[in-house]
Amino acid sequence: MQTQFDVIVVGGGVAGNASALGLAQTGARVAHVCLDAPASSDGALDARIYALSNPNVSLLKRLRVWDALDATRMCSVSDMHIMGDSAQTQSGMGGQLHFSAYDTDMTELAWIVEQNNIQKALQMALRFVPNLTAFRTNASTLSVRDHGIDLTTHNGDVLSAPLLVGADGAHSWTRQALQIKHTFFDYEQHGVVANFACEKPHFNCAHQWFFNNGDVLALLPLPNQCASMVYSCKNPISAHIMSMNDAELAKHVSELSHNTLGALTTLTSAQAFPLKRMLAKKFIAPHTLLIGDAAHTVHPLAGQGLNLGLQDLSTWLDLMTQREPHRAINDPVLLRRYERARLAPTMEMQGVTHALHRLFQSPHPIARHARNAGMSLLDAAPPLKRRLIQAAMGQQTTDAP
Fold it and tell me: Around Cβ 398, how many Cβ atoms within 10 Å?
């Protein structure tokens, strides 16, 4: 059976589901190809947590799913404390940063949301889009034609469309099928995630510690006096952490965080995933564009991986809906506009996170002094600090009053 669509979207993660929904809401006939398990409904906390920036909250509102999220499972971030490795000693070198939503003219710095919470809302919305057809299978082969893309699924369906959107993650089948090359850097670290109940209230404040071996620990606020851990650490350390039982894990993280939130109680067992930076050589190909981790991955120390991917989608939706009347949905000019718009912010975020990782990995006394002194100087410069956090959170920067 061959079926004609306007767009084929491959991918069932947050970026893939959001892409399928957003494109369908423009009126396009969408084929959504993915083989992903439904969001969990057992009520347990999800260890995978995202810090959504305000522009991406706006995107989810645009997709009409923000109000469908379970508000009792979300937490706003009003403050953020960042500690360098000298702030954790008695060296007197400083090395602390404090960001406040109030000081940066925002209602909040970000929203902490479970992956499962977002997926539930997206999957529910996808069921009620009449011009979307879901193919619960994997993609098998594709052919690039003059008119667009022909894609065959494992079930034997042959789908045709002028545009293919690959939003299928870091190991993207779409990217590999089109032989799009990519650059790659292995941090030789794992991101270890888990959730904890906290003895002390967090007051909607996110805490982050940079250690002098390049490891980074973050505790992000969750509702009901809970916190989510994202610990980027070297592979031997992550292996040691993954060998701990829940009580040992909670005690270890309490000590690493200097008991900032008091004694911790483990709510979800630790999970670990390898940390790698990846950048596709091209974000586009004939009749095709890549979105999210299919095009780029970054170190999680800034929490911007999903934010970058959702802004890819937001940019494409704007370009597609505002295109000139004579331009088709797969017009090469339109695709090039997308690549130009997304390449610069992606490379900038990759560069910043990579540089921070390398800076704190260096044990040299000069590097240590420079990084901690720099943090203290930045903390004492409110206008510069305001611009930095606004840029990091995707806000338009404003001059100091």
Answer: 12
User: 149 near 161, Cβ under 8 Å?
Assistant: yes
Same domain, 135 and 269: no
Question: What is the total residue count of the chain?
Answer: 401
Of 40, 44, 7, 1, the residue nearest 23 (C-alpha): 7
CB 291 within 8 A of CB 167: yes
Same domain, 97 and 125: no
Number of folded domains in the chain?
2
DSSP characters for 169-209?
A: -TT-HHHHHTT--EEEEEEEEEEEEEEEEESS--TTEEEEE
Does the pTM exceed 0.85?
A: yes
Domain that residue 32 falls in? 2-48+116-183+277-356
Q: What is the largest CA-CA distance in the chain?
A: 71
Domain boundary among 236, 256, 275: 275
Question: Could you read off the pLDDT of 154-190 as tens digits, one per residue?
Answer: 999 999 999 999 999 999 999 999 999 999 999 999 9
